[in-house]
Amino acid sequence: MHIIAIANNKGGVGKTTSAQNIGAAIATFASKRTLLIDLDPQASLSKSFGIYLPMSKAHAGTFLLGKCSLEDVIVTYKQTSLLDILPASMELIEAKNELKKDPTFPFNLIKALEKYKATYDFVVIDCPPGVGTLTTLALTACSKYYVPLQAEYFSYEGLRDFISYTSKINAINKSLQLGGVFATRFNPNSRKNFSRNLVQAVKEQLGSRFLQTYIRDNVALAEAQAKKRHIFDYDQKSNGAQDYYKLTKEILYGEKL
C-alpha cells in the first residue's frame, strides 16, 4: 500500500481538486485499487463526489477513533470503480479533539489502515489547510506528500512554512519525503510576469522536486465537481483531464511529460 498526501498550509490552492483527480487517475488508468481519504472537516472532497453525510453518521474521524470499520463508512464511486472514498463531515472537528487526546496519536491513521494493506494499492489523503492535528495524522501515515502551488505570493509563503513544518514530522515518520510541488491554475504563456517569475524561482530552489507538469486553469474541473464526478468521467478531452493525467503519470512513474 502506497500512502500519499496532498497538502499545503494555505487553502484555495487546488488541494481537493488535485486529490480527487490524482486518485481517480490512479484508479482509472493505472487500474490500482485506490482509497481517497477526506481529512478536511469542510468535506469538500466528499461533496465533490456527491457525498453529504447526515449528523451522527460514521465518517473519517469515527474510523480513526476505532468506532467503526472501514467497510461501514466507505463509499464506492460507481459500481465497477476501483475508487473508494472515506468521507468527512463537520463532525470531524469534534473527532479531531478526541484524536489529539488519544494515546496512539499521531499514529491513528497508519494503525487504522494496517488492516487494509492488502485491500488497496494506493491511498490518497486530502488534508485540511494548515498544520494541525489532522494534517499531522496524514503526514505521519504517508511516505510522500505533494504540494499544489498557486502562482501567487501568499501561496509561496504557505509552501515555505509547510515544508519547514514537515521537517518536524520527520522525527516521527523518518520515511516522509516531499514527493513534489506542482503549479496549479498556471499558464506559462500568461502575461503575468510575477506568476512566471515565482514559479521559476521555486523551480530553482527545489530542483527535481518541482514537478514539470502544471495544472492549467480550466472550467471543466469545477464543472465536474458540480456534477459530482471526477474530471475523467466528465470530460476526458478537457485541459483539466489532460493535465491531471500527465501529473499522475509523473507522480507514479517519474515521467517528464
Question: What would you say this structure looks like, in words?
Answer:
This protein has 257 residues and is an alpha/beta fold. 44% of the residues lie in helices and 14% in strands. It contains 12 helices and 7 strands. The protein has helices at 15-29, 44-48, 60-64, 70-73, 92-101, 108-113, 133-141, 153-169, 193-206, 219-226, 231-234, 239-253, and strands at residues 2-6, 34-38, 75-76, 83-86, 122-126, 144-150, 177-184. The chain has a 7-stranded mixed β-sheet, with helices on both faces. Helix 1 crosses helix 12. The longest helix has 17 residues, at 153-169. The model has no long low-confidence stretch (mean pLDDT 91).
Radius of gyration: 17 Å
Q: Structural class of the helices, strands and pairings?
A: alpha/beta
What number of domains? 1
Q: Briefly, what CATH class?
A: Alpha Beta
Question: How far apart are the first and last residues' alpha carbons, in Å?
Answer: 26 Å
CATH architecture: 3-Layer(aba) Sandwich
Sheet with the most strands: spatial strand order:
3-4-2-5-1-6-7
Strand content: 5-15%
**CATH topology descriptor:** Rossmann fold
Count all strands and give the number. 7
Percent range of helical residues: 40-55%
Low-confidence stretches: none
Number of helices: 12
Kindly state the mean pLDDT as a whole number?
91
Order of helices and strands: EHEHHHEEHHEHEHEHHHH
* Gross geometry: globular
- The CATH homologous superfamily is named P-loop containing nucleotide triphosphate hydrolases
